[in-house]
C-alpha cells in the first residue's frame, strides 16, 4: 500500500517538476553561501607547509661556513641537469664550491638533490614567488642561494598577500593546522 | 508646431529605447557572471573596478578592438548581413511594447510606449520570427560544419517552439478581448492572468526559454558538441551583435511574460510607482533566466523536439479549449 502511495507521490512530483525545483533550491542556497576563492595576488596568500618544495637554499654550519662539500652528487642525480658545481680548496684545505649555480627555469622541484646530498647542505625551501621576465635571471648563484629562506616552520595558513614571508618570519595564523578548504563547501 | 513636438517625442523615445537596449547587456553580463560565480562558490569578476563592475566595459573594449575575421570560404555578403539581421528585430519589437500608462512631465502627458498598436501581440511574434534568419544566415554563410549544424538546430527549434508560444498567448487574448498589449495589461488590473492561465504561462515560459536560446534549450550553441554553433566563426564586433541580440531577446521574453501573465505595471499590496513594479517584475524574470542557466543541464536534441511537439503543443491546445469553454 505504502509503495503504491510512494509511486503516486513520485508521479505527482514528476508532473509538477519536483526534481527541477530541488535543483533550483540547491543552486539558490549556494548563491548565498560563502565562496571558496582565495584571492591570491590581490588579498590573500597561502603559506606553504614545511614539506613544501620551493626555491632551493644552501645551508651554513655553526661557524657560518658553507656546508656544501662540492661533491657534485646533486648535479649527478638531477634529472634535468640544472645544477652546476665547480669545486675549489679553501685555506683550511676543505673542498668547497667555487661556483654553485641552479637554473631555476629547468628545475622540476623533485627534491632529489636534497635527498642525495651527503652533507645536508642543499634543500628546497618555502619561497615560491620568483617568476621572472627573463630566463637568464633564473640562474641563481651560490651567494644568492645562501640567502634564500629555508623550510617553513608552520604552514598551510592564509595570510594577507602583502606580508613578506621571505625572511624566515614566523607567521601567526588563526589556522595553525592549515587552512580548511572544505569549510564553506557542503558535503552530505 | 504640434506635429513637430509629436514627431520629436517619438524620435526621443526611440533613441532612448535603443540606448537602453544597447547598454543593458553590459550590466546583465556582469550580473550573469556574478550570479554564476556565486552559485558555484566562486566570486566571479573581481579585479576591474569595484567587484568587477567595469568588467563588461573592458570586455566591450576587447571585442571592439579585436580583429574582425571573415573566413576565406565564407559568403561575405550574408556573413556581414547576418549579425545585423539578428540584432534589428529585437529592437524593432520593443516599439510595440508598453512600459506603463503615462507620466506627466512639465504639464504634458507623455505615454510610456512608442505606439499602441491594436495588433501588438501579432506584431511582436511576427517580427521576432525574423531574428531566426540572422542565425540561419550566420550559420550558412560561415561555411563551417559546426555553424551549419548549429543554425539547423536553431531553425528546427524555432519552428517547433514558436507554435506553442503563439497558442499559449491565445488564452490571454481571449481574456482581454484584445491583442493590444496595453489593453491586456489594463484587463489585469484586478486579477493577474497567471491565476486564470497557469498552463498558458508554463507553455509560454518554456517556449520563451527555447526562443531566447538559453539553457536548457541552447542547442544552437551547445559548447560541448558544436563548438559554439553559429557563433564559431564570428569575432569582434559582429560577435558582440549576436550577444546583444540574445540579451535583448531574453529581456523581451521577460517583458512579455510580465505583460501577458503578471499584470504588467499593476502592483500588488505594496504601493510603488507602476514603472518600478514593472522593472522589478522584469528583473525577477531575468534572474530566473540566469538561475535556470546555472542549474539545469542541456536537453538532448530529440528530447527538445519531443517536449515541443508532444508536451507543449497539446498543452497549449488544451489550454485554448478549456479557456474557451470556461469563457462561454
From TrEMBL, chain A:
Its cofactor is [4Fe-4S] cluster. It holds the Pfam family Fer4_7. GO terms for cellular component: plasma membrane. Keywords: 4Fe-4S, Cell membrane, Iron, Iron-sulfur, Membrane, Metal-binding, NAD, Quinone, Repeat, Translocase, Transmembrane, Transmembrane helix, Ubiquinone. It is a peripheral membrane protein. The keyword Metal-binding applies. Residues 56-88, 98-127 form the 4Fe-4S ferredoxin-type domain. NCBIfam families: NuoI (TIGR01971). Belongs to the complex I 23 kDa subunit family. This is NADH-quinone oxidoreductase subunit I. It comes from Mesorhizobium kowhaii. The lineage of its organism: Bacteria, Pseudomonadati, Pseudomonadota, Alphaproteobacteria, Hyphomicrobiales.
Amino acid at each position: 500500500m505504502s509503495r503504491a502511495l510512494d509511486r503516486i507521490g513520485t508521479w505527482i512530483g514528476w508532473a509538477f517538476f519536483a526534481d527541477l525545483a530541488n535543483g533550483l533550491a540547491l543552486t539558490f542556497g549556494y548563491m548565498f553561501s560563502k565562496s571558496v576563492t582565495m584571492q591570491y595576488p590581490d588579498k590573500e596568500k597561502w603559506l606553504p607547509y614545511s614539506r613544501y618544495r620551493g626555491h632551493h637554499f644552501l645551508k651554513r654550519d655553526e661557524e657560518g661556513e658553507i656546508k656544501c662539500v662540492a661533491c657534485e652528487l646533486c648535479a649527478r642525480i638531477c634529472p634535468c641537469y640544472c645544477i652546476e658545481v665547480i669545486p675549489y680548496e679553501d685555506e683550511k684545505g676543505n673542498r668547497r664550491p667555487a661556483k654553485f649555480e641552479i637554473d631555476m627555469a629547468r628545475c622540476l622541484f623533485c627534491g632529489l638533490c636534497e635527498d642525495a646530498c651527503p652533507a645536508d647542505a642543499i634543500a628546497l625551501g618555502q619561497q615560491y614567488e620568483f617568476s621572472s621576465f627573463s630566463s637568464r635571471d633564473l640562474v641563481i648563484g651560490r651567494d644568492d642561494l645562501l640567502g634564500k629562506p629555508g623550510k617553513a616552520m608552520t604552514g598551510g595558513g592564509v595570510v594577507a598577500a602583502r606580508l613578506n614571508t621571505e625572511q624566515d618570519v614566523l607567521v601567526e595564523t588563526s589556522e595553525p593546522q592549515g587552512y580548511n578548504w572544505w569549510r564553506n563547501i557542503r558535503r552530505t | 508646431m504640434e506635429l513637430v513636438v509629436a514627431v520629436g517625442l517619438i524620435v526621443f523615445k526611440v533613441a532612448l529605447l535603443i540606448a537602453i537596449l544597447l547598454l543593458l547587456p553590459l550590466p546583465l553580463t556582469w550580473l550573469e557572471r556574478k550570479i554564476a560565480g556565486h552559485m558555484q562558490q566562486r566570486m566571479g569578476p573581481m579585479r576591474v573596478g569595484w567587484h568587477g563592475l567595469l568588467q563588461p566595459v573592458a570586455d566591450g573594449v576587447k571585442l571592439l578592438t579585436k580583429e574582425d575575421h571573415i573566413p576565406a570560404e565564407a559568403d561575405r555578403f550574408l556573413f556581414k548581413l547576418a549579425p545585423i539581421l539578428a540584432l534589428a528585430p529585437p529592437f524593432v519589437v520593443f516599439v510595440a511594447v508598453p512600459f506603463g500608462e503615462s507620466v506627466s512631465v512639465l504639464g504634458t502627458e507623455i505615454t510610456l510606449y512608442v505606439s499602441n498598436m491594436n495588433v501588438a501581440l501579432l506584431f511582436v511574434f511576427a517580427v521576432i520570427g525574423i531574428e531566426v534568419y540572422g542565425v540561419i544566415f550566420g550559420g550558412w554563410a560561415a561555411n563551417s560544419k559546426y555553424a551549419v549544424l548549429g543554425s539547423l538546430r536553431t531553425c528546427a527549434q524555432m519552428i517547433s517552439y514558436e507554435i506553442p508560444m503563439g497558442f499559449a498567448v491565445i488564452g490571454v487574448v481571449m481574456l482581454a478581448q484584445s491583442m493590444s498589449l496595453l489593453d491586456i495589461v489594463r484587463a489585469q488590473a484586478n486579477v493577474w492572468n497567471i491565476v486564470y492561465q497557469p498552463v498558458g504561462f508554463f507553455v509560454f515560459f518554456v517556449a520563451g526559454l527555447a526562443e531566447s536560446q538559453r539553457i536548457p534549450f541552447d542547442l544552437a550553441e551547445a559548447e560541448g558538441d558544436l563548438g559554439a554553433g553559429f557563433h564559431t566563426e564570428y569575432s569582434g564586433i559582429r560577435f558582440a551583435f549576436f550577444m546583444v541580440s540574445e540579451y535583448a531577446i531574453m529581456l523581451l521574453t521577460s517583458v512579455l511574460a510580465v505583460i501577458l501573465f503578471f499584470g504588467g505595471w499593476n502592483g500588488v499590496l505594496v504601493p510603488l510607482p507602476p514603472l518600478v513594479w514593472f522593472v522589478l517584475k522584469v528583473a525577477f524574470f531575468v534572474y530566473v533566466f540566469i538561475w535556470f542557466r546555472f542549474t539545469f543541464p542541456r536537453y538532448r536534441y530529440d528530447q527538445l523536439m519531443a517536449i515541443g511537439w508532444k508536451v507543449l503543443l497539446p498543452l497549449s491546445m488544451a489550454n485554448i479549449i478549456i479557456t474557451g469553454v470556461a469563457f462561454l
